[in-house]
Amino acid sequence: MGSTAQMNSPPGKSQTSSGPHESRPALRDWIEYATARTVLGVLGHLPRRLARLLCAMLAALCYWVWPKLRRVGLQNLNLAYPEWSPRQRRKVLFACFQNLGRMLADFAHFPRLNRANIEDLIIYDGFEHFARAQEQGKGLIFLTAHFGCWELGSFAHGVYGHPVTFVVRQLDNPLIDGLINQLRCLSGGRPIEKRDFAREVLRALKEGESVGILMDQNMLVSEGVFVDFFGRPASTTTGPTRIARKTGAPLVLGLVIWDRELGKYRLRFDSVEWIRCETSEEEIRANTANFTRRLEEYVRRYPDQWLWVHRRWKTRPPGEPPLYSR
Which terminus of the chain, N or C, has less C-beta within 10 A? Predict the structure, then answer.
């Protein structure tokens, strides 16, 4: 396990497998980095309860002063839950912001987590599904989403002794990108930059690694297929499906769920059955649709824990009008 000592010097480059950003950091990058590092450092040294309280206040402030995100979130909730009242949608969206605040506080505490205290924050639920997939010896694909405290999933799994190789998108600020990846990797995980997806994921699976992939982001028409999500076609990545079909690697759905009764998170694993079809493209579409359906089931159970502020239905099928207002 890593420690705070690993955070003493500013990251000069991203720790993704694709190497550093090509351009030198600008003054604005350094200012943003100093701010992020200070915030994470202060939060990380506070007791977790106090850090969460401060982040809850910050999240509430962001809800009111960030109208663009609030507008996108309410539009998404209107698309997904047209039967809800405006008050219900606002309540869930505010809770979504609170969830993000809690995640920030807990992310800042990553350097303090180890095998002796990890169960105070997160416990396994359905670990047998992960274990069965791992026993096949082909590596496995850990399907996840922007749900609950998603950053904690791969990190905690590593603390428990199961490091995860995870796919990330390189941030625009190279210094913050390096800082975030330092924290992500303290439990033994390894990031793969999105642009190196196919080559690096195939190599990781060949070496028997678990690869975490976020599967709930909007994709360009050329990058995904349209499958149903809350009754509307959503352009969805086919990467996990294509890789699984090529390698035979098993898939598990893994989501980090905030359990209010326990006062901690559950890292929930579910097995994912593979659907066989006559053609490869039919199989890819059918399984992508199945993964998305499984995610929707969890979002419907815990609507305040999904990232509603992302324009999930931005890409439209040919000929269909946009769903979002400017």
Answer: C
Contact 169, 213 (CB under 8 A): no
State the CB neighbour count (10 A cutoff) for residue 277.
12
Return d(Cα 130, Cα 271) in angstroms, integer: 7
Task: Give me the pLDDT at residue 298, please.
Answer: 98
Smallest CA-to-CA distance from 286 within 198, 250, 278 is with 278
Ramachandran category for residue 262: left, alpha or beta (phi over 0 → left; psi -120 to 50 → alpha): alpha
The backbone torsions φ and ψ at residue 230, rounded to the nearest 5 degrees and listed phi first, read: 55, 40
Classified as helix, coil or strand, 211 is strand
Rounded CA separation 3/222 (Å): 42
Query: CA-CA distance, 90 to 251, in Å (whole number)?
Result: 35
Instruction: Give the integer Cα–Cα distance in Å for 165 and 189.
Output: 5
Instruction: Provide the pLDDT for residue 305.
Output: 98
Alpha-carbon distance of 309 to 42, in angstroms, equals 27
**Is pTM beyond 0.85 here?**
yes
The phi-psi region of residue 230 (left if phi > 0; otherwise alpha if psi is between -120 and 50; otherwise beta) is: left
Q: What is the mean pLDDT of each run of 10 residues along the chain (326 residues)?
A: 41 46 82 97 98 98 96 97 98 98 98 97 98 96 97 97 93 94 95 88 95 95 96 96 95 97 97 94 96 97 98 96 87
Q: What is the pLDDT of residue 4?
A: 34
How far is 292 from 311, CA to CA, in rounded Å? 16
CA–CA dist 259, 156 (Å, integer): 16
- Rounded CA-CA distance 188/37 in Å is 21
Rounded distance, CA 71 to CA 69, Å?
Answer: 5
Q: What is the DSSP letter of 306?
A: B
Secondary structure of residue 144 in the 3-state scheme:
strand
Enter the tokens of residue 5: 């000592």
Amino acid at 232: R
